[in-house]
Amino acid sequence: MKNNIKYEQSKIECSICRSTTSYIFTSKNNKDIFKCNNILCGHNLTPIFKTDQGFNLRGNALEKESDADLKEFEKRNESLLKIFINYLKDTPKPFKFLDFGTGSAHVSRTFKKNLKNDCVIYAIEENTLFKDLYSKYDLIQIKNLDNLPEKVDLIYMIEVLEHVVDPVAILKKLYKSLKSNGTLFISTPLGTNNENFSNAYVEKSHLHFFTKKSLNLALKKSRFTEIKYKFYSQMYPRPVNSNILIQSLYSVKLLLQILINKMMPTTSIKHLVGFSKPLL
After folding, report:
1. CA–CA distances in Å: residue 187 to residues 90, 114, 240
2. Which of 82, 42, 76, 49 is nearest to 192 (CA)?
3. Which of 190, 223, 248, 272 can pair with 255 through a Cys bridge, CB separation 3.0 to 4.6 Å?
4. pLDDT mean over 224-248
């Protein structure tokens, strides 16, 4: 047990079910990780000391960052949009989207570029560095959910929920922002008891590390359906390719990693991804 934790462990409660937690390890980026003691939840988290602790560090060239991300992820985003359109096939146009945690906006820029006037996209980002950026991309930037002028058909939270202080409180607000037949899409890194088996602990701004149980419990407490987890290659292409295979001939360690990846089930290993609907 680590002996220099500067807070009272008994007061670190689970953000999802409010059960007690236990310290399990300190990550490589020096974050203390606690695990919920409730076996029906098992949520992992790091103590939160300030409201902006979940913000990513950003440079000053935000437009350049957005352009670079768009160039890198545009094809991926187009594939993701096709999945969304399939879920919205019975929804009249223009679609009403809410991008919660817009960040550099490369996802919504892709969607708007492809759908044009067939969609209205509202963008929310708590990081004030992005103030007034999104209007340049024909997105409607609003300060918070209270300023959302209408209910929407689709809300997407792509690598966002792990950054918010109170996930359940946010999901409850999103429930009120979604049409009764609307859809919520979430992707978040999978929290494990060993940081070597997940990329969830790499980013310093991550506050929560969801298990399958804890994410579905958060959704249930917020009046959403549980997610039926599956692997979405459109979101996270498998890491094994011919170039890596060639490199593996010169690296036993890399070869072993490839074999481990190949033996994993077809569900998403490092991320929890899926769709949820509001419970009526």
Report:
1. 24, 22, 21
2. 42
3. 248
4. 68
